Amino acid sequence: MISIFLRHELKAFWRSKNTGKSIGVRIFMGVIIFLLLGEISAIGIFMDKFLAWKFPNSDIIVSFCGIILLYLIFDLISRMQLQELPTLRVQPYLHLPVRKNVIVGYLAFTALFSFFNFWPFILFFPFIIKIIGPNAGWGAASAFMIAVVSIAIFNNYLALYIKRKANLNGWVFLISTAVLALLTAGDFAWHLYDIRGISYSFFGNLLKYPVLAVVPVAMAAAMYTLNFIYLKQNLYLEELSRKKASYKTSTEYPILNRFGALGDQVANEIKLILRNKRPRSAFIMSSVFLFYGLIFYKNPAFTHFEWPKVFVGMFMTGFFIISYGQFLYSWQAAHFDGLMVSKVSFKDFLKAKFLLFTAVATCALLLTTPYAYFGWRTVLVHFIMYLWNLGVNIYIVLYFANRNARRIDLSKGASFNWEGVGATQMLLSFPLMFAPYLIYIPFSLLHLANVGLAVMALIGIAGILSRNFWIEKLVQDFYNRKYTITEGFRNK
């Protein structure tokens, strides 16, 4: 049956009307993956030298045992963002005498054909063969290979399980990402524990007791079984529908009731974000960018300069406005014609977006207050850039959104996905990047940095207070381009 499934998938691919485009994308992706694997191969071959340079006071085998768990955490984060779910059009087979176990087994088996699963072979196996085998024995080396591959398989099925559960409830993905972020921050930011030490405590003992390789094998088998059972229970579309109907998701937001019709539209926007891959990825990246300040503020090279705080503050409090707002209408492309003939006023439609952006930016500002560790002036700059985002950048982003007529398939992931992206996004980056510095840098050169920040704050406040005026201008601009946008969204 597996060979039959593969033949059917190949026929579906070659008979698709987008075959030419798909082949071009696959060739391009294949070249990128080939180059990436080449770089990883070089790292694997010279890993002993790299570890000796990076950790000169430690034995390279000890250092190697310490980085494996770090790699696996990074691997899981990457899979959750980039790895696509294996798919099979199961509906045509459900009424045929094909056992459910066969269909589910095919889906589970094809999940192993991910380029993430090849990384351990080319990254770790050269070191194991060159160093661990001759020094610790080939029994320990074999145990290492089995353990590393098993944990990679565990990561593979864990990431797929999280993403499948997230299709029913978007909070699963958000919570999982938050847990991984806190787990990483607990070591590198707060120093509550040492991930490298935990990694060595297992893999170091694996050198002495190769039988411990049974543990990751059991973990991989358990996660495979969990995926298999979940897929089998949810194979029928009506079963998924029942679960969605009976499961009370977080689609009711009482706090939005006070905003009336605008609150209803914001609630619908939140549902769109949580239920679809591409907009959910934009929201996830906004959360990830809250850690952006750690790159700059912990770097001694930026200690005596304040301009990075302007840049970082703008992106941490406004990344969602930028990443989500530039595709403001593209998210609605599938039903944009219906939206244009509905009772919803386009002015109210825009006001709802402003309410959503304000809420998310305010939450981002509150979540960045711990950067007071680097001084309260840092929080002050963040607040000023928060005002700048809501009073200036939001209008720039929506102006360029009026010039984006490219549709987006919400069901597709964000990784290597350029749907909706065009020259407009390139042009948008210039005013966003340079506008705040056109005000701040002249005052800073005159040693009047505080005046520059005050001017930016006043401009942001003026923009917020004159919001109705700018919304009217954006509405007029939209109606001038309305038919171009709607026609663009009809082109699939």
TrEMBL record:
Pfam families: DUF5687 (PF18940). The chain crosses the membrane at residues 23-47, 59-82, 103-132, 138-159, 171-193, 213-231, 281-298, 310-331, 352-373, 379-401, 421-439, 445-465. Keywords: Membrane, Transmembrane, Transmembrane helix. InterPro entries: DUF5687. This is DUF5687 family protein.
